[in-house]
Design brief:
Number of helices: 13
Helix content: 25-40%
Largest sheet: 9 strands, mixed
Distance between the termini: 29 Å
Radius of gyration: 23 Å
Length: 480
């Protein structure tokens, strides 16, 4: 089976639904389809089902610019986010364009016809879809497998060993001793949720500490503004307020890391029991925002520690035993359940293979133009969000830019557009970020350059100006 659309989007998660909604509202005459590998929309927010799953960015910036997040909840639970995404898809008619169960394996560009031919596996059969423009909105991690290092002796452990990415429906943690291995956003979410859900005790076992910052679970400014000016206006003001605060805090972290260290430590001390070993368990060796900072709503992690329902151990695993874990310090942790919140595996473009005129495109050999297109790859865009702010801030900007690109293409009658790399521009890693999942997989990602428009700024305020004003005939984009 072969059919044709003007724009083909891969992925029906936060990025894909947002991209399709932008097409529906800004280019309503454009034919498009969304290919989704799974049997449901929502991406990350449908895949992850572990207890307490929630946003790690405030919802007034994680929500779309064009559709308000209603209410004053700052960090929302996964089910609420999923409802928001699916409501957005229904409101803009995106849900009628999603084709489920389509595992995209290959996308091949042909310069003669100026079209992509995208091959998908559907129920064991091969289907082809052609498109004038291809838009990858599949994120950058592997949906099949999370990252789980092999631990000595794990085969003899008599309890349950689970990864948060594939949380078992039948896992009952009530009354159980749980050890969560990890200290990132997933771990600091799981620990208080498991403790509140009836676990006998939850231990967060980390090799090294992470910056954990308590934030208000409700946005009081948003609540007051809504009463005064209504939902839509209050959302816009709150969104800009939070963008400004996030940006300022990030810049302060990079310029005066010692000051931010003291601020975070003071907040930790205030929420932990007197005499708690804060510097052992909550004092990282790296500077703030070298890795992503973890936010905990109303300090729920610290509350669980303060009430004795949870604890933190900073040590390394020597081996699993039949009943738990033995650490390098000699300490033993008994456990009925061990959760490996050890991170993600990167997978660019959902693992699909790209070809241009029969030649395989190696993503790591290409340079990213404005962090959304690839050098040498015509009529192609991808969406990857920020590492230091809400994913959707960048996703919305990418969508706005692609809509401008498509409108320009239609208005001028040009059939293809491709970024052409200047050989003199130095290539550097796309992500200057020290998180484990980035270190493990950054070599598989496209590269960025050291100068515009090849450089990635990780700065929404800069990108909002640059991308909305950028000329589409800039000498780097070649139209034909």
């Amino acid at each position: 089976m072969t059919d044709h659309v003007e724009v083909l989007i891969i992925g029906a998660g936060l990025s894909g639904i947002g991209a399709a909604a932008h097409l529906a509202k800004d280019l309503p005459a454009t034919s498009y389809a969304v290919l989704e590998r799974r049997d449901a929309s929502g991406g990350t927010w449908d895949l992850f089902r572990y207890p307490g799953v929630r946003s790690d960015s405030d919802m007034h910036t994680l929500g779309y610019r064009f559709r308000p997040w209603r209410g004053d909840t700052a960090l929302a639970d996964g089910a609420s986010i999923l409802d928001y995404l699916r409501d957005t898809a229904r409101e803009y008619g995106v849900d009628r364009h999603i084709r489920y169960g389509h595992h995209v394996t290959t996308a091949a560009w042909d310069s003669v016809t100026a079209r992509w031919t995208v091959t998908s596996e559907v129920d064991g059969e091969t289907r082809e879809t052609t498109a004038d423009f291809l838009w990858a909105c599949s994120g950058y991690y592997d949906y099949d497998e999370g990252f789980t290092p092999h631990f000595e002796g794990q085969e003899r452990f008599g309890g349950r060993l689970v990864h948060p990415q594939h949380w078992p429906d039948d896992l009952d943690h009530a009354g159980k001793r749980v050890v969560v291995i990890g200290s990132g956003a997933t771990a600091v979410t799981l620990v208080p949720a498991l403790a509140a859900g009836g676990a006998d005790h939850v231990t967060m076992l980390q090799r090294s500490p992470t910056y954990v910052l308590p934030v208000a679970g409700k946005d009081a400014v948003k609540r007051r503004l809504t009463a005064l000016v209504g939902e839509r206006r209050s959302y816009s003001v709150t969104r800009w307020k939070n963008i400004a605060l996030q940006s300022a805090f990030y810049r302060l972290s990079r310029r005066r890391p010692a000051l931010v260290r003291r601020v975070v430590r003071k907040a930790n001390v205030a929420m932990l029991p007197p005499g708690y070993a804060v510097d052992t368990h909550f004092k990282p060796t790296y500077d703030p925002w070298d890795q992503r900072m973890c936010l905990v709503p109303d300090g729920d992690l610290f509350s669980a520690i303060r009430h004795g329902k949870a604890s933190v151990v900073t040590d390394r695993i020597r081996t699993f035993t039949e009943t738990g874990l033995e650490l390098e310090s000699g300490e033993r942790l008994d456990a009925d359940i061990v959760v490996t919140a050890t991170g993600l595996n990167l997978k660019v473009f959902g693992g699909a293979r790209l070809l241009v005129d029969g030649e395989v495109v190696e993503p790591h050999e290409a340079m990213a133009y404005r962090a959304m297109m690839l050098s040498g790859v015509p009529n192609f865009a991808f969406t990857i969000g920020y590492t230091n702010a809400s994913w959707t801030l960048k996703a919305d900007l990418v969508a706005e830019y692609v809509v401008r690109l498509l409108a320009h293409r239609r208005r001028t009658g040009r059939r293809s557009v491709v970024p052409v790399r200047d050989a003199s521009v130095e290539a550097v890693p796309l992500m200057d970020f020290d998180a484990g999942y980035v270190r493990r997989g950054v070599h598989t990602l496209p590269r960025q350059g050291t100068v515009a428009p090849w450089a990635l700024r990780q700065n929404y305020l800069y990108d909002a100006r640059a991308l909305r004003r950028a000329r589409l005939d800039d000498g780097v984009l070649r139209w034909s």
